[in-house]
Amino acid sequence: MNLLLKFIFLFLITQLSKIDCWDIKSCDANPSCKFNETFLSQDTSQNFPKNCSTVCGIVLINGTTDLSVEQLTELFKNMRILVGGLHIRNTTFENLRFLAGLRRFVADYTRYPIYDAQLRITYNRELRELGLLNLTTIKSSVVDIFRNEKLEKLNLPKLEIAKFLGNYTIQFLMGYDKYPKFCIETQVLDALTRRRNQCDLVVNSDICIPENAPNVCTVPTVGCQRLIGNLNITKGFDVRKVESLKRLYGTLNITNTDFTDFRFLGNLTHIFQLEYAVALYVVGNKNLKNMEFPKLRRIYTSKDQFAHFADNSEASHADFKSCYALRKAALHEYFVWPEFGNLRSCEVIEFPSKSRQIESPSTPTKNQTCYVFGITYPCPVNSAFAL
Ligand SMILES: *[C@@H]1O[C@H](CO)[C@@H](O)[C@H](O)[C@H]1NC(C)=O
Ligand SMILES: *[C@@H]1O[C@H](CO)[C@@H](O)[C@H](O)[C@H]1NC(C)=O
Ligand SMILES: *[C@@H]1O[C@H](CO)[C@@H](O)[C@H](O)[C@H]1NC(C)=O
Ligand SMILES: *[C@@H]1O[C@H](CO)[C@@H](O)[C@H](O)[C@H]1NC(C)=O
Ligand SMILES: *[C@@H]1O[C@H](CO)[C@@H](O)[C@H](O)[C@H]1NC(C)=O
Ligand SMILES: *[C@@H]1O[C@H](CO)[C@@H](O)[C@H](O)[C@H]1NC(C)=O
Ligand SMILES: *[C@@H]1O[C@H](CO)[C@@H](O)[C@H](O)[C@H]1NC(C)=O
Ligand SMILES: *[C@@H]1O[C@H](CO)[C@@H](O)[C@H](O)[C@H]1NC(C)=O
Ligand SMILES: *[C@@H]1O[C@H](CO)[C@@H](O)[C@H](O)[C@H]1NC(C)=O
Ligand SMILES: CC(=O)N[C@H]1CO[C@H](CO)[C@@H](O)[C@@H]1O
Question: Domains, the chain, ranges and CATH?
Fold first, then answer.
């Protein structure tokens, strides 16, 4: 019985991974639904497969595209799925609602160069929102929404799936520039960060405060599940205000408390710090027994140094298990050595005596420098890194 279940499970997994490629394969079956041009204009739109619900090809709309919003709306009226690439740049559109019928975008990296087979919406100086109202699925290695200086929101109300094929990570890029009017919707963040979606976020932005949303707060409040703003916890903090907290959109700062553990944050699963700042700051907590955040699963931050720990109890700084768990949550396991305690890596905490043998490309050697909060300075002599 067990074996049978396993077999069915494996079968399903194999079938599901084939579905990943299904859209791409459908392009071979339907050559008449291929857009053989790239650049869209009055001329080339004659060749656009208007009647197809699945269109295959690269579509480029730019400042030279001489089609009105009405003409584009008519052209894309039947298109539900686009398999290939979509580039919208240098235009003066205020939104992309002419693509409101689009449900799925699938980058076809099998047929086109990887740079073409992407979703890129860049340098559109009048764009206020994307407004892709029916888009549920993005499958692409990269989604680049860059330098649209007047962008206020994304408006992708139906987005559910954002991933690359297989188990690869999708890069959701909005650049390091922060635009004053822009905020990202928590609903879009939810979609991008679903467990089955693997997404790297490079977004420097405020979070939109949703209207009339239940269990959302901007200051710690009893019963609040999503806190938009930084959370400062110091001595005397009333922990009931964060016991229900699941998602924090800001920095978690726990400084100079008497807490022995962080079980009062037992519902916290996600921290989003999208403003190029440290996400987790734990300093001066002398009574801590460990550094465990019971349910914390993901820390989203654009910063390499996602966490800062200093001046806490010895026991908590020796807690290598939590160190690994936090590093995993920040998806930094392969390429960054986080500081933990006195600039030690999790490996060094686990195997202090072996620290001299541990090699890594980012391990500072004799004359290298250490980084904290983006400030560079020579590594302390007594640090495990000062080999
Ligand atoms: C695009 O080109 C392919 C092969 O070159 C052809 O079979 C197909 O009909 C063309 N599609 C359109 C819409 O012209
Ligand atoms: C598209 O559909 C319209 C109306 O149904 C039809 O008149 C036209 O011939 C079709 N075009 C193509 C290329 O099939
Ligand atoms: C739009 O793309 C076409 C084709 O690549 C190019 O010739 C044209 O210069 C582009 N226009 C702008 C404004 O970038
Ligand atoms: C988007 O979907 C809604 C229903 O969910 C539908 O009413 C609307 O017509 C769709 N928009 C387009 C442009 O197809
Ligand atoms: C992703 O898939 C590749 C090959 O299919 C495999 O080698 C790798 O271990 C997988 N990675 C994860 C994190 O599952
Ligand atoms: C948290 O503490 C920092 C530093 O003391 C302060 O600048 C910030 O305003 C505080 N944030 C909140 C939300 O209390
Ligand atoms: C954390 O809070 C302490 C005092 O409460 C403050 O001094 C420190 O600057 C804060 N750190 C961050 C990163 O917000
Ligand atoms: C998590 O939240 C639920 C409901 O708000 C609450 O009953 C429970 O005690 C919380 N868990 C912790 C560890 O605080
Ligand atoms: C290492 O640092 C010392 C002191 O800053 C300096 O004198 C020396 O030249 C450096 N060596 C190398 C190889 O950079
Ligand atoms: C017509 C137009 O807006 N052209 C701009 C396209 O974008 C480049 C930067 O990538 C600008 O230099 C052009 O002025």
Answer: 21-207 (3.80.20.20), 217-349 (3.80.20)
* Cα 72 to Cα 45: distance, rounded to the nearest angstrom: 9
The low-confidence residues of the chain, meaning pLDDT below 70, are 1-21, 165-169, 304, 332-343, 354-387
Atom of ligand 3 nearest to the CA of 65: 1
Closest atom of ligand 8 to 266 CA is 13
Burial call 214-248: b when 16+ CB within 10 Å, e when fewer: eebbeebbeebbbbbeebebeeebeeebbbbbebb
Distance from Cα 110 to the centre of ligand 10, integer Å: 30
Which atom of ligand 5 approaches the CA of 168 most closely?
A: 1
CA of 83 relative to ligand 2 center, distance in Å: 21
pTM for this entry:
0.80
Q: Are 195 and 202 in contact (CB under 8 A)?
A: no
C-alpha atoms less than 13 angstroms from C-alpha of 276 in its C-beta half-sphere: 10
